């Protein structure tokens, strides 16, 4: 099907292309009668005309795109939820979200030759060369870090705080010997290390022994072996903090396969409060990361930056984390 152009709208409404452009772009300082404006808009709607984003960018020097750069991480419910919330928040501000999943080592500057975003948000800090290239192009850059509250212009999420909160909940439930179920995907190793650091630090602060760490793959056999490993330990843990909900759900399956139950034989707590968490057997206790609040903050930072200001500070990250208590712990 042929693309409808502004020339088609001009012919349909009996005006010039310039008039069509003035009307559809609400160009200020131009006198056009209400009757003509209504006729142009009616013709555009009848023909199904959609203005070209590329042409609008060239004409105004601005685009409505916010580019969100994801590293080579596995996509899951947490990332999906964050992006969904962020897309909604930006849409309310007249901006569109474009997600780029970085894989294969292709430089970000290659993508910037194809699209011209108003802002770029990264889930990790950008290399200096990329940041400088974007700065020269007049693109606002917002990097994010996992654990660095003192970094200027960065959005920080405390992965260590997540681990600490898991331990605090388990301690309050009376558990004194803990295990840790680590993810095995090398792409999330940085998250695993930081969350585990938080778990170890919280155990030390509470006078507990270090957690007994066992990697758990996303397979029933691996989960069964992990549960057996914890139960055969010299001091068997009574509770396990899992890297995320997926790993926690695997541990629950490993317990069931051996005729064991949570929390009677082993309490289990996850992270993310994903869609499946309320429906596991038993329902999974987990840590919510307030993804809607993250999205609102990131959108606010982008918009304020485009306006030349600064967004209001987000509350302390640990204050946004929340344990969602269900039957597994």
Task: Write a concise keyword list for the protein shown above.
single chain, 329 residues, alpha/beta, 434 Repressor (Amino-terminal Domain), Rossmann fold, six-stranded mixed beta sheet, five-stranded parallel beta sheet, 13 helices, 11 strands, 44% helix, elongated, LacI family DNA-binding transcriptional regulator, transcription regulation, DNA binding, HTH_LacI, LacI/GalR-like_sensor
Task: Describe it.
With 329 residues, the protein is an alpha/beta fold. It has three domains: 6-51, 434 Repressor (Amino-terminal Domain) (Orthogonal Bundle); 65-157 and 292-317, Response regulator (Rossmann fold, 3-Layer(aba) Sandwich); 159-289, Response regulator (Rossmann fold). It is 44% helix and 15% strand. It is built from 13 helices and eleven strands. Strands 7-6-8-9-10-11 form a six-stranded mixed sheet, with helices on both faces. It has a five-stranded parallel sheet with strand order 2-1-3-4-5, with helices on both faces. α7 links the parallel β3 (119-122) and β4. The longest helix is centred in the middle third of the chain and has 17 residues, at 189-205. The radius of gyration is 26 Å and the shape is elongated. Residues 56-61, 145-155 and 314-318 have low confidence and may be disordered.
